């Protein structure tokens, strides 16, 4: 999927705190400072409501290019809303969502379009088709991307690439979904709970695939998860949400340090999400 960043950035409306201006006259609130380093993704005072439900309440953060950032929080915390806004599937009611043009490449529709790949939590496939069918179809939709043959080898699809999807295991379907998410050779990859439902061994195998996808920082990854061991194993930075608000940001160690008395990420999660206290590694 190719996204023109400015199309999303144009969804800027006055926030409850006044006009959204990413400059010194209207800085981000203390504890939710936006990174000064080049950011692949930046949220500025984003607000999102669904009826009377506040899904995101004045959320500001930045994900630097090349990061593998984990988005954590309980169900209903706002994780999926954030991912959908980055993909252009939803627009904020206030604030702005910015994607870095400099991370993109020249394309036929925009001089510096940013390529985004995504694996949604619930990937639906036609059971009578094979992984090979899907890879060939997506390759035709994304000419100039990664070849099906390369993805089959890189993601270990060889053993089942010509089997009907109806007969594949959950882990095999997840591998296919991950391979399809990068067939356009994206700059930014969004993964919505990519290992949910996998057994511990399959989950660790999947972590290795995600590291390969990250490619040592050549791509920026943002993934949501409920598994703290997954965050510790993969993430270079953490965004922790509770009830639509950002309660902690930074490295795993920095997030643990924000929760007084916490000795682990699990304890920090229990403390910060349980209290809903607004804090941050940059505070």
TrEMBL record:
<dbReference type="Pfam" id="PF00005">
    <property type="entry name" value="ABC_tran"/>
</dbReference>
<dbReference type="GO" id="GO:0005524">
    <property type="term" value="F:ATP binding"/>
</dbReference>
<dbReference type="InterPro" id="IPR003593">
    <property type="entry name" value="AAA+_ATPase"/>
</dbReference>
<feature type="region of interest" description="Disordered">
    <location>
        <begin position="1"/>
        <end position="34"/>
    </location>
</feature>
<keyword id="KW-0067">ATP-binding</keyword>
<dbReference type="InterPro" id="IPR050763">
    <property type="entry name" value="ABC_transporter_ATP-binding"/>
</dbReference>
<dbReference type="InterPro" id="IPR027417">
    <property type="entry name" value="P-loop_NTPase"/>
</dbReference>
<keyword id="KW-0547">Nucleotide-binding</keyword>
<protein>
    <submittedName>
        <fullName>ABC transporter ATP-binding protein</fullName>
    </submittedName>
</protein>
<dbReference type="InterPro" id="IPR017871">
    <property type="entry name" value="ABC_transporter-like_CS"/>
</dbReference>
<keyword id="KW-0813">Transport</keyword>
<dbReference type="InterPro" id="IPR003439">
    <property type="entry name" value="ABC_transporter-like_ATP-bd"/>
</dbReference>
<dbReference type="GO" id="GO:0016887">
    <property type="term" value="F:ATP hydrolysis activity"/>
</dbReference>
<feature type="domain" description="ABC transporter">
    <location>
        <begin position="41"/>
        <end position="268"/>
    </location>
</feature>
